[in-house]
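Re: [ENG-882] Designed sequences occasionally contain unexpected residues at chain ends

Forwarding the minimal case from QA. C-alpha cells:
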C-alpha cells in the first residue's frame, strides 16, 4: 500500500512517499523526474514520523547521516549508484567519474549521471553531493540553486 504526506522544509514543500510503511520517495516541489502523482497513494501523515524527525534534525544541523529504512526501486545499476551516494560523507562531494570508478566501471560516468538524476529519495540519498570532474555544479533535479544551498549548508558556509 502506498501513501504520502507533505512536509515543510527550507526548500519549500517536500513530498514524502512510502510503500508498505517504508520510505520510497522524497520529492522537492520542483523536480525534473517526479513520478506521476497517482502513484503516491492516499494522503497519510501517520507513517512518516521518523522521516520527519530526521529531516528536521538534518535541517537544524544536528544530523549528518540518515538511518531510515529505504525502499529504492530501480534497476540494479541505479540501486548501485544510489548506494554509492549514501556512502558520500556529509559535507563532502564526489564526481560522477569517481562514482563510476567505485562501481568498477570507470567509463560509466554518463550512466552514473542518469541514475543520479533518477534518485527517488532526494536529500536522504544525497545526490546533491555529486559534482562535475572540474568541481562545477552540474545537474540537480531540484535545481542548481538548491544544490548549491545544500552543499553550502553541509560545508558550514550557510544556515537555513
Amino acid at each position: 500500500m502506498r501513501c504520502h504526506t507533505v512536509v515543510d522544509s527550507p526548500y519549500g514543500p517536500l513530498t514524502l512517499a512510502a510503500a508498505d510503511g517504508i520510505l520510497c520517495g522524497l520529492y522537492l516541489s520542483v523536480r525534473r523526474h517526479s513520478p506521476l502523482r497517482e502513484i503516491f497513494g492516499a494522503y497519510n501523515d501517520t507513517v512518516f514520523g521518523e522521516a520527519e524527525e530526521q529531516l528536521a534534525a538534518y535541517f537544524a544541523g544536528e544530523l549528518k547521516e540518515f538511518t531510515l529504512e529505504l525502499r529504492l526501486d530501480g534497476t540494479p545499476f541505479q540501486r548501485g549508484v544510489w548506494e554509492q551516494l549514501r556512502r558520500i560523507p556529509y559535507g563532502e562531494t564526489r564526481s560522477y567519474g569517481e562514482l563510476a570508478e567505485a562501481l568498477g566501471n570507470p567509463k560509466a560516468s554518463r550512466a552514473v549521471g542518469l541514475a543520479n538524476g533518477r534518485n527517488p529519495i532526494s536529500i536522504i540519498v544525497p545526490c546533491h553531493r555529486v559534482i562535475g570532474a572540474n568541481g562545477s555544479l552540474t545537474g540537480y533535479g531540484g535545481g542548481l540553486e538548491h544544490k548549491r544551498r545544500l552543499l553550502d549548508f553541509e560545508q558550514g558556509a550557510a544556515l537555513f
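QA comment: On inspection the terminal residues look reasonable. The radius of gyration is 15 Å. Proposing we downgrade this to a documentation issue.
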